[in-house]
Structure prediction request, 635 residues.
Amino acid sequence: MNRRDFLKLACFSVVGTPARSVFDRLTGKDIAGPTKEGQPKWAMVVDLKMCASKPGCRDCVDACHSIHNVPAFNNPKDEVKWVWTDSYKNIFPEQSHRFVSVEVQTRPVLILCNHCENPPCVKVCPTRATFRREDGIVMMDYHRCIGCRYCMAACPYGARSFNWKDPRPFIKKIKEDFPTRTKGVVEKCSFCEERLAKGLKPACVEACTTKALTFGDLNEPNSQVRNLLASKPNIRRKAYLGTEPKVFYLE
Amino acid sequence: MIEKSLKGDHIYWAWVAFLLVMIGIGFIAYMRQWDLGLGITGMGRDISWGLYIANFTFLVGVAASGVMVVLPYYLHNFKVFARITIFGEFLAVAAVTMAMLFIFVDLGQPARVFNIILYPSPHSVLFWDMIVLSLYLILNIIIGWRTLEAEHQEEAPPIWLKPLVFISIPLAFSIHTVTAFIFSGLGARPFWLTALLAPRFLASAFASGPAILIIMCIIMRRFAKFDIGQEATQKIALIITYALSIHIFFFLVEIFTVFYGGIPEHVHHFEYLLGRGGQSILTISAWISLVLIWIAFLLMINPQTRKTEGTLIYALLAVIIAVWIEKGLSFIVPGFIPSPLGEIARYSPTLAEIFITIGVWSVGILFLTVLYKVTVSIKKGMVS
Prediction:
């Protein structure tokens, strides 16, 4: 190493490294902690054909919404949703054209929080009330959220709901083992982290009778999700935004 | 000095009383919102920001525009603005106060507002916006008030004020730039995702803010017999003309890129704004804004109409209303239409929301009235 190289290296380590770390902090690159050895990375695979094989089915939605005390407001303005369906052409507009069969275009697509690897909602939150765990789950702290709804503006998937009113009177039957929310905070799907902690699968996956939903660990090479993703063509919602969604769809 | 705001004629007191009543009505409406939640507004799942954030965006621009009189006076020693600089600074104080209040009334859990400070998040633009807005507010209060005090005691302003003024100038640009970044950094909302947003915000702010300042000065001449002088008015009018031209140019540049580029995600928002989904408050106000901005432009570039106060007033009012719409509802709401799921939701503010909005404006206008009253009393006292 000559003197010039040494000076370059010295300058880089003095200025470059902190500059890099400041840049990462400002652009939210530091949101995700390092993946630990043996740490799972949770993901879901939705088989659209199997899901459509039982028309009008709401098993997964009902299971999720009832155990998580999700209120039913019955009007689109105040609606709170953790998991729900919409048509293929709304969810994958860039994949839809008029030659796609009507059957596919109107096929229901199950949607929920994508638990992005680069979650824009976490980046914009001014209080870190929404954060990303090491296992990839994007979580909400309902007690810290100030209700500014910046995360709702930042989410490209419409996955976040705000409590425009006190939700409690609108919950059909309150489950005592799961917290209810207050008015003025944002909420969304949590991949059933409370069930994962007990070694159970997410409620929607368990409730599905058509075997359309597969849940598992992306860090486990032989997991069911890894096998499906390796063997079948699959798509993600708005992957071009660089959010790295972890809900995959088999067509 | 503040005691000077307690001496006024019956028009002054009637005006103050009117503002207090408006604040009272706004406060009652806000108490309802506090109890029942933001569900009493027109906002909802798909259009989750509305009138409050619209006014916030506009007012940050007004606050930033104070720099248009501060900069020529302090950096170029432009004496014509000597009498008016302080009014620019106090306008900034009132505007930042309103902007921050609009953020506050938009919060779902206002009691937790200090979580922004307790859990600082450098990757959130909102965190930085809070910092620059607070700094700008504090600086303008200190600069404006201390300068006035010096004038009152007929001495030169203290030397330590100068560096504060020099900090406040770039800070004025930064408050509006950071406010633009709140929106232009969101990949999820193609309507806002444009590098031109911050420059566009600054251009429209430097047109609308000084327009408000001239209108204020005309009102003060009429009611307080205080005149900033024809030359100052005309110089500000010229600044407005340039800013307005740049603003219109930026807007057309944006329109070109969106429609010629033709990416559906970008085009759709503009199409709905201009009426593809049918008529609504949103589309009608957008067209009103477009027409007004061109009327204002024609009246301002024509020296005859710019120099005649009778027509100048109409041009200024057109600028203010057009920019308020363009940066307000026409900017916030179309960002949410269509929604990420292709939903075409409608938004119209509710009565409670409008009362709260008027209440916040009344707080700011009351601040402005008191600050301007004190300033005019001191400046007039010096002349006599």
Summary: Chain B has one domain: 2-383.
